Amino acid sequence: RSFAVELFDVSASTCMMAVQGPQALERLAGALDPEFVRSLRPRACAETEWEGTLLFASRTGYTGEDGLELVTRAEAGPRLWRALLDAGVTPCGLGARDTLRLEASLLLYGNDMDETVNPFEVGLAWVVTLDDGADFIGREALLRAHGSEPQRVLVCLKAEEKGVMRTGCPILRSGREVGKVTSGGHSPTLGVSIGMGFVPPQMMAQGTEFTVDIRGRPLAAKVVPRPFYKRPRAKQEREA
Questions:
Q1: HEC states along 15-80?
Q2: Structural fold of domain 12-91
Q3: I need a labelling partner for 43 at 20 to 30 A (CA). Which of 73, 171, 200, 240 fits?
Q4: What is the pTM of this model?
């Protein structure tokens, strides 16, 4: 059966804002309809009318924190921005967002994964279903990857001393380079440098010690559980 589909790129005519953090829902209730905000359960999405324009909201995000992602028409963006500021929301940039997603061990495309990486190397096997008989583009490649031992796996590294690992820093074991940091930085929450990187699977065990080469300066680090930080869940989220 065939379907006629017409696609439209509306990127230029829309805007998106993400309100994230421990007080995100409380602040959002001051800018939007409080009942609508409370009705959205984790990972749910819905549309509502806000000041005469359509607003799409999803209780999702890329920070590891609770909150909503909001999409509306571009011309309504400045009004929504001011309403959020008036409700006590503090603006932040991509640097803060990247720090939060790293603390939550959320992968960044182009750093931790790309077209050369398969889901089984980065802990995303749970999003792949291969045993239901459904056909899709890439299925055969995933079957081959699933049936073979990975040559590398992504691990979480936590520094044991002062210093900040960055993307691209070599990961050494017994003086030999065995991988590279794919995402790295300082964690304000943990007070140390953290990072993710690929290493051989036989070196993925928690507690395995490495040296990260920071422009010729060695930084001691070890494998720790994923994620680095997990925020406390509200009762509503635990029951979802």
A1: EEEEEECCCHHHHHHHHCCHHHHHHCCCCCEEEEEECCEEEEEECCCCCCCCEEEEEEEHHHHHHH
A2: Gyrase A; domain 2 (3.30.1360)
A3: 73
A4: 0.88
